[in-house]
Amino acid sequence: MLCRGPALLPLSSILQGPSPQGRAWSWPPFEAELTEILLCKNELHATLNNLSQWMKDEPVERNLATRLDSAFIRKDPYGVVLIMGPWCCPINLLLGPLVGAIAAGNCVVIKPSEKAKNVEKLMAEALPSYLDRDCFAVVTAGVQETTRLLENKFDYIFFTGSPSVGRMVMAAAAQHLTPVLLELGGKNPCYVSDTCDLRSVARRVAWGRFFNAGQTCVAPDYVLCTLEMREKLLPALQKVIAEFYGSSPRESPDFGRIVDEKEFQRLRMLLRSGRVAIGGQTDEEDRYIAPTVLVDVQPSDPIMQEIILGPILPIVVVASVDEAIDFINNRERPLAVYVFSSDDKVVAQVLERTSSGGFCGNDTLMHMILTSLPFGGIGCSGLGKYHGKFTFDTFSHQRGCLHRNMGLEALNALRYPPYSQHRMGIVCAASGVKHKGSCALL
Asked: Does residue 169 share a domain with residue 288?
């Protein structure tokens, strides 16, 4: 389905539109290359390396009654699927699912986010030069057109975006009983214990929070720690921010900008929560918001009520790991839970006593780079999973198949009327699943 096309412009030309201040970038090239290109290549290469194996019929166990037959799972395509991408990571979160959908044999309608204008144009103009037009179509549309698009019957819908729009997509899909995968993000907590390497924590948390100016769905959304740790962490974060972006992050080529005016205004409103301990500077004309850390944040504050998707990190004080776990569990289940501790028992405790789409101990974002791990939310953070084989499986209907022998009809006579108790015993013995031993968990 692939074909050779013309050479494309560098990624920086696609993702980095000029700003009003004359800057030639809005997303640092290093981050764009890592997130948009490398992760897409990983998905493609993992699929090409393993597709012949993934596609094979999968044999299953048989009972005595079907011992002479063939029982297997066939991986069928759903048909025509719709993939709706977001404005954050607009290439990876569109082409990654596309790879798996086509590999599974589907035809695909892709709908880029209207906020990512350059990517929307790229998909519409360049993809036809690289893919067989019979297997995909690109729809560029605004909100009203997208609403009408969802009125059509698709065989599967893959949506990445906000929970509010996810509910609309799911409601539209329900009209046709269409299965969906929803990637909705969430307020990802990051617990920092009193026993940890402070410098490493500051570097890894700052990198995860301020990557793409915080505009990633898996960024740590807020930090939970004791008051003592907060007082140690603040100067460490201040130092790391200066190391990463210099004394003036606004001048750094490695710090991004907010995607559009609407998002900028939303984030500026969130800055009113709590008290600014680090950063807080903004420039509306340049859509710049400095790497910011907030303290004295209350759980009821606006910044704790919605996904941030910006370079703002609230710190919430808790007394212990138990209180941190209770804080996490009293809220909707997030897309990711992060925990930092030099004590493996603390990491295990947070893992065992919380629920989330994914989990990463002693780092942020890095669980995303493994195609061998499923990626997806749970509850309000999403429905379904993908990456690597999980993407192929998501876009494949698992068709249970049994191919029986036409002969040996005498063996089937026991199941036909007239019935008897004697026949019932033989059929149950041949068709049943036997308990082989005690369960150690019960």
From this structure: no
Kindly state whether residue 205 falls inside one of the protein's structural domains.
yes
Kindly calculate the radius of gyration of the chain based on its CA atoms and give it in whole angstroms: 26
Could you identify the residue written with the tokens 């948390």? Answer: 205
Ordered DSSP codes for 79-130: SEEEEE--SSSTTHHHHHHHHHHHHTT-EEEEE--TT-HHHHHHHHHHGGGT
What pLDDT sits at residue 105? Answer: 97
Count of Cβ atoms closer than 10 Å to residue 80 Cβ: 16
Task: List C-alpha distances in Å: 61 to 171, 326, 350, 404.
Answer: 38, 42, 37, 14
Tens digits of residue pLDDT in 90-109: 999 999 999 999 999 999 99
- Catalytic residue numbers? 183, 217
- Which DSSP letter does residue 68 get? T
Same domain, residue pair 31 and 148: yes
pLDDT given for residue 441 in this prediction:
62
Indicate the angle between helix axes 92-103 and 39-54, nearest 10 degrees. Answer: 10
Neighbours of 406 (CB within 10 A): 5
Report the DSSP pairing between strands 70-77 and 80-84.
unpaired
Strand partners, 383: 182
Domain count, the chain: 2
User: Which of 328, 392, 391, 336 minimizes the C-alpha distance to 368?
Assistant: 336
**pTM assigned to the model:** 0.91
